[in-house]
Amino acid sequence: MSNLLESILRVGMTVFIVGPLTAWVARRGARERSEATDSPDCFTVRMPAAIRTIIACCAVAFELLMLGVYVWQGVSLGEWDHELVWFGHAMALAGMAIWALLSIPRIDVDGGRILSRNAFGIRKETTFGNIARATLHAQMMRIDLFEGDRKICSISLEGVCSLNLLDRLEEEGIEISDAVDGPMTKAGLCWSAIKPLTIVFNGMALVFSLVIAFMAVFTDAGARLLLLVPFLFLFIGGLLPLLMLSMPARGILEIGRQERELGFSFAEEMASRGATGTSLVDDDWFIEISNARVVAFRRDYLKKVTAHEDSESGDRCTVTTKGGRKIKVYAAGSTLEDLRSWFKQGAKARSTVDRAEDALEATV
Fold this sequence. Notes:
Strand order of the largest sheet: 1-2-3-4
Strand content: 15-25%
Low-confidence stretches: none
Structural class: alpha+beta
CATH topology of the domain at 248-362: PH-domain like
Largest sheet: 4 strands, antiparallel
CATH class of the domain at 248-362: Mainly Beta
Radius of gyration: 25 Å
Distance between the termini: 47 Å
Number of strands: 14
Helix content: 40-55%
C-alpha cells in the first residue's frame, strides 16, 4: 500500500471518525441521563452511558495514542512505522465494535407497549399482554422475554431501568423463572458460576483475533500473524477459564465434604426435592452463586455464621461447622447476609427482583 494512500486513510480516520465520535458520545451521554426514570409505566432499558462512554473513549484514546507515537517516532527518529498506525486503527475498530454491540440493544416500555431492538438493529413490538413468561439469568446478567415458546428479546440486567422492567413484569403477573432450568448438580453449579467468565475470555480472544486479522491484511507481516489466532483461543479462551475454576471449585469441594460427613448424595437429594437452576433456599439448604463462587450449605452441617466483613479479596464471612472447622466464605455482601439470616431465622421467600439486585450488587 502506497504511503500516500496510508496518509489519506490516517487523516480520514482522525477527521471523520475520532472527532465526530467524541462529540457524539458526549451528546448521547447527556441525553441518556435525562431519559432515566423510576416510573414503571414509561422507561427505557439499555446499557448505562458510563460503560459505553468508557469503551468508546478507550477506543478513541488508543487510536490517538498510536498516532501520537507514530508522529513522535517519525519526527524524532526519522522512522515512520506504518504498522504501528494500523495497529492503532485495528484496536480502535475493535473497541468501537464492542461499543456498538453494547449500545444498540434496548427495550422501550410505554404503558402496555414494548418496543425492543437487538444487537443487529432488528426491531420488534409487542405488549405485556402477549408476554407469556420471562427468564432471569443472574450469572449472565440477562433478562429474556417470551411470547409462548418464542423469545422476543433479551436485555442486559446491567441496563438502565432493568429493575423497572422486572417490577413491571411482576406487577403484570408474568412468571419470571430462572433461565437455568436443568436439574441442580455440582457440575451444573460449577459451570453456571464460570460460564460468564468463559464467555468474556473467549470474547477477548475473538477481539484480539480480529485485530490480528486486520493487521495481517494491512501490514507486511501478512499471514504469519494468523498463526497466533489458535494460541489466543487456547490460552485466553481455554486456559484462563480453567484457572478461574478455582473460584467455584472451593464451594463444590465443600459440598463434597458435607456429603461425606452427613452421609448423603447431593444429586439424589436435589432430585428428590425437584431442585433446578442455580438457586435453592429452603429450611434445609442454602444454595446460591455469587461472584463466580458457589455458596452451598446444609443447615445440620453448620454451627455458626458470622456477619460479613470487607477484606482485600472481597466480602466474606466465617462459617463454623458442627465439627469445629472454620470456613471463610467469599461472596457478595447481600448473599452473605442472606446466608446468615437463613441460618438464624430460617428460609424466607426471595423474589426475582431480590436475586437481580444481588447480581447487580456483585458487579459494583
